[in-house]
Structures are given as C-alpha cells and as structure tokens.
Write a structure and sequence with these properties.
The protein is mainly β. It is built from one helix and seven strands. The longest helix has 4 residues. The chain binds copper (II) ion. The site of copper (II) ion (CU) has 6 residues, from strand 4 and strand 6. GO terms for molecular function: metal ion binding.
C-alpha cells in the first residue's frame, strides 16, 4: 500500500509518501519538501484528517494530537528528544523525533525506514493528517494546537 500527502502551502511544496507492502513489512517514508526557508521543524501524523471542504488550503483546523495509540508518555524524562532510539519508544506519529527534524533546512529529500508506522490495521495512519510545525514549536506542546505551517490530509482511498 502506498499513501501520499501532497502539500503546497505558504510557498512550501512537496510530499510525504508512505509505503508498506503488507502488515508484516516495515514502512518506507519519503519526504521531499522545497522552499522551507528554515521556517519549520517538527512534523507529525495527527489524529484526524483535514476537513475535506478546506483541504489544500493552509489551515489551523483542529486535527487533534499526535497519533499515539499506544499512549507513549511524551512528558517522561526518558522520551527520546531525537532520533536514535528504537521506534517503539516514540509516539507513532512523532515522525521528526523518530527520523530527522526539518529545522535549519531550505530543502529536504530523505527516505526513512520506520518499524512502527502502520498503514494496515487498527493503528494505521491512513485517514489521518500530516502537520508541519514552525521551528519554534515545542514538541511537548505539539499535542495541543500550536502554530502549524500547514496541515494536509493523507489520502485514504483504500481502493
Ligand atoms: Cu504535530
């Protein structure tokens, strides 16, 4: 299965592609973004889709907190501040902590392997949203509504 979230907001253009061949395979996450102007940092899968009536537009719509079906405690002192821990230690949706922040970048073109980012089953990210946050957003406040650089829906047509 392959799902794509395409964005073109506030001058930023690019996409996230999520690929997982079966529930028993790892997920490949490809991130390609241009014209970031060093404005953004964290990016996450949030709980709810961007309302379809406004999708494609820049939005601060409430898409809920980070997708975290295993209730990993991000306020714990042992919660990893960045990449390097096994993926089960992070919220499923905390993509930038698991892989790499966008901060300080003008462009970004990377592919990551994620052992805990399902496109199948009850913990799937399909039908949710990807949110890119301004660089000065606090990760621990990321569960609340902070300034978003733009939200975009992950396509969830399952044909
Ligand atoms: Cu977020």
């Amino acid at each position: 299965m392959s799902k794509e979230a395409v964005m073109s907001m506030r001058g930023i253009k690019g996409y996230f592609i999520f690929r997982q061949a079966s529930p028993f395979d790892v997920t490949q996450l490809s991130v390609n973004l241009t014209n970031l102007r060093e404005l953004v940092g964290p990016y996450h899968v949030h709980n709810f889709p961007v309302p379809s009536v406004r999708s494609g537009q820049c939005s601060n719509d409430n898409v809920g907190g980070h997708w975290n079906p295993f209730a990993v405690d991000t306020t714990s002192p042992t919660y990893p501040a960045g990449p390097g821990s096994t993926h089960d230690k992070y919220e499923i949706g905390d993509l930038s902590a698991k892989h790499m922040s966008l901060s300080g970048r003008s462009a970004f073109d990377m592919t990551f392997t994620d052992f805990n980012l399902p496109l199948f089953g009850q913990n799937s990210i399909v039908g949710r949203s990807v949110v890119i946050h301004l660089v000065n957003s606090d990760r621990k406040r990321g569960n609340k509504q902070t300034e978003n650089m733009g939200s975009m829906g992950i396509s969830f047509s399952l044909a």
